[in-house]
Amino acid sequence: MSAQFDLMKETQTLHRMSLDQHTRLATTAHALAQIKARGITILDIQTALQSGTIISAERRDKGAPLWRVQGKTPDGAAIEIVVALDALNKTLKIVAAHYANVLEEVTGSELTPKLIERRVTDWASRIDALYKDIETWLPIGWAAEHSQTNRMHEELMRKFGIPARNLPILTLVHGKEIAARIEPRGLWIIGANGRLDFVRGRHHYVIVDTAESFARPNWHIAPLVSRDKLRPLNRKNFVDLL
Amino acid sequence: MQHLARIGSIYSEIDAGLERQRTDAQARGDANMVQRIESKQAINDQAYFVLCWGQLETEIDKKCRNAIRNRLKNGNWANRRAWDLFNPDDKRLSGLSFEDRTALVLDKSRGSGSPWALVMSYYALRNQLAHGNLTGQRIEVPAVIQQFYVIQGNLQP
After folding, report:
1. Contact B135/A225, CB-based, under 8 Å?
2. Range of the domain at B123
3. Which residues, listed in sequence order, are joined to residue B118 by a DSSP beta bridge?
4. Which residues pair with A117 in a beta bridge?
5. Tally of domains in chain B
6. Cβ within 8 Å of residue B7, ≥6 positions away
7. Distance from C-alpha of B50 to C-alpha of B115, rounded to nearest angstrom
8. How close B142 comes to chain A (CA, Å)?
C-alpha cells in the first residue's frame, strides 16, 4: 500500500537512480512486447522516469518496491510506467508502460505539435491496416476501391499548426454497384481512439477503436442508432452486415 | 443514475437525426452544410455529456453520504473519529470538494485508467464545458455512458 511509502522520497530515489549512468534499465519480456507494440522508445521511458512522479507504490514479495510512475515523453505525451526497483543490483525493471487515452490528452495541458503529428500518422496507419483486413474479409463478388479521400484537419491539428491530411475512403463494390463505404470520421473523439463510419444502403454503423493511444487497435462496430451495442469488428461480424 | 439510460437513448435518437441530415448534405456535395451539421453534433455531444455527468456526480454524492453514515455507526471511537468531522445530511457535505468526495468512495492511488483517474479526467472536461469553453472534439456519448456505469460499479459505499 502507498501508505507505507513516502511518495516524495520514493520519487527522489527514482530520479537519482534514473539519472545515474550506472543504473541498469531492464524490461520484462511482456513489457518489452507491450512497449514495442505501442511505439514507446527507451528515450521516452528514460525521460519519464527522470522527471516523472510516483503516484503509488507497493511492496513486492521480496520486499522491493513496485512503483507506478506518471511522466512525460520528450514530445510531451503523458505516459504511465510500472517499474520494479532492484536496489541491490542497481536495476530499474520496467514491468508495463502505456500512453494516456484521448480523454487524458484532451483534458491535459502539455500537448506538443510533434505528439499531434505522431497521433495523425498512427491514425492513418491504423486505417490502412483496418482496410487491408476488411479487403481480406470480403466474400466472392465483392471488391474494394480506394479512389476517394476525405480531409482530416481536426481542432487539435489546427491549434498546433499541423497541416490537413487526406485519408482514404474505402468503397465496397458488389457486382458493378457501389454497395457500401467506410470513411474516417475523427481521431480525437472522447470515449474512443478514433471513429470511422460504415454506410451500407440505409444502414449506418460506427466503427471505433477502443484501445489506448498508440496501443494495438481494438476495433468495435455498432449501429449508429444503438451505439451501446458494440461488437468486435471481425470477419464474421463484418460479413453479417454486408 | 436512474436517468442515464434514458438520456443516452434520447441522445442516440437526436444524433442519428443529425447524422441523416449530414449524409444527405454530403450526398448533395454541400460541404458548408456538412460542416454546420458537424458543429451542431459536437455541441449536442457536449450538452448531453454534461447531462450524463450530472447523473454520475449525484451518484458519487449519494455513495459518499452512505459511506459516511455507515462509518459513523461504528461504536469504536478510534475508528469513527475522522468520520465525525463530516455531516452526511449537510447539503454541502461539510464543504467537501468534489475531489474529496470522490476520494472517499474511490482509491485515488490506482493511477491512469483507474476509476478515480477516469472520474478526474471527466471532471476536468465537465469543468471546461460548464465554464463556457466548448470543444470542437466529438464525444462518443454512448461510450462515456458505459464508462460511467463501470465507475458506478467501483464506488465503495
Report:
1. no
2. 4-154
3. none
4. none
5. 1
6. B48, B51, B52, B55, B145
7. 18
8. 5
